[in-house]
Amino acid sequence: MYQDFFSLKEQPFSISPDPDFLFLSERHKEALAHLTYGLQGNGGFVLLTGEVGTGKTTVCRSLLQDMPTNTDIAFILNPALTEIELLATICDEFKIEYKKDNLSLKLLFDALTTWMMSNILLGRSAIVLIDEAQHLSFSVLEQLRLLTNIESDNKKPLQVILIGQTELQQKLKQTELRQLAQRITARYHLLPLTQAESEYYIQHRLNVAGASFPLFERNALIQVFKNSQGIPRLINLLCDRSLLCAYTQNSLKVSAKMVKKASDEITLSVPNLSLGRMLKNSWRVLLVVILTLFTALQAPQIFAQFSEQKAQITEIKPSPETNKQENSEQADWFDAYPQLDLSNATFANALVNLYAVWGYQTEIKSVNCEQGVSVLLSCYSTNSSLKKLKQLNYPSVVKLEKDSLQSAYVIIYKIKDNYQLLIDGQLIEVSENWFNKYWTGDLTLLWQAPFALQGTLQFGQQNEQIAWLVTQLNEVQGLSAQNKDRFDLSLLQQVSAFQRAQGLKDDGIVGFRTLMPLMQLSNPELPRLMQEEN
Known about the structure:
The protein is an alpha/beta fold. 36% of the residues lie in helices and 15% in strands.
């Protein structure tokens, strides 16, 4: 209706998928990278969750477009199936013939097994993708797990992608599904767009549709984000109705008032998207655009008892008055950020945020360092210096203190030109001098081990953990791969060299302080304070 009025060649905000309008935000790209990595493994499950309308289908469509030609894919779009119906549907998708009289689990399972064994001999692989997976029953999920047990010559011929809403995270925390949870080799919780991404998204769609000039006023873009909370599907609905509103008023620009009117007309229902019900009603926390999240992708035995939910970061700028100062360092305490809310700057709240940086949800009333044990997340607390903080290179809860009456626990989130601090979902930047002035030296970080630690790894030992250590050190140090599982003299020298390079005591004993930097170097997706220089 309004296309001719705005000189658009097509409707810019249709909710129907259209590859021409594909927009991958940083978090969509991040999700895509994690899922792609997970599918490179040897079998198992890959998990993508997110609220309705955040773009899960978009990510999966992009993922499957790049699949190699030797991959067979079965799409399950209706997960409300029994075990027999599930296996029969998978067989139909893979075009596997089976007797349709007297169907049984055994008949279908055997047919799938035979097909997969033949498929892998032909150098092919198979993927089962299930949408709306939060509706899968326990028995159906168990059948999927059993399918992933099949292997030939230590190769698994089937991988399963589960796509679902946030409830799927909760379902997978159930004790009876712990074996399946251990098979998840990659997982990602997709969050809404940030305000900046929301604006890029709107402009991208308008450009594709042929807009020759900006159609939304600046305040209108802000209002769209506020009312949609960055959910792409809601952005589409709201922008479409806003353009219609502008058309009916014979206006070539959409104003904030029009967006509000459009929002009232379509009665947007925005889900509560933050950690622990947002811990406050407007937690706009998007903890991480950092490549987090993630649960040591090279440690398949890790399983998640926490649901992966990151939150949205709201970036807070210094006040204009502070910007006018010749030296912003003169601003005392948090005076440069009058809109900053410090009421929840407690240790417990900061620790909840830190878990979220790693992709896990936990409740503020029960949060503690022991909660991450099931996914091999451990706390490390110390009193430190700036040099050691940078050497550790992990996001950390730190205590800032002005005096005996004014203190705050925050996350030192990232170090670039300045120090990025995350305070109850609000992101600010301060100088190193400012940070050093108020930091007490106390810090608590989370790090993830590759396996359950039972003492140290040292000279003379022989086990699978040593084999893992050899593989990771060779990769990090650029050495040829070795197939050994004994801690011999050459490995002792190798460990000592690594420790010296990391500024650690070169005793050749591998404990958590040696594993902490090794895990980061082995897994570039893990959270870190500073990115390596390219």
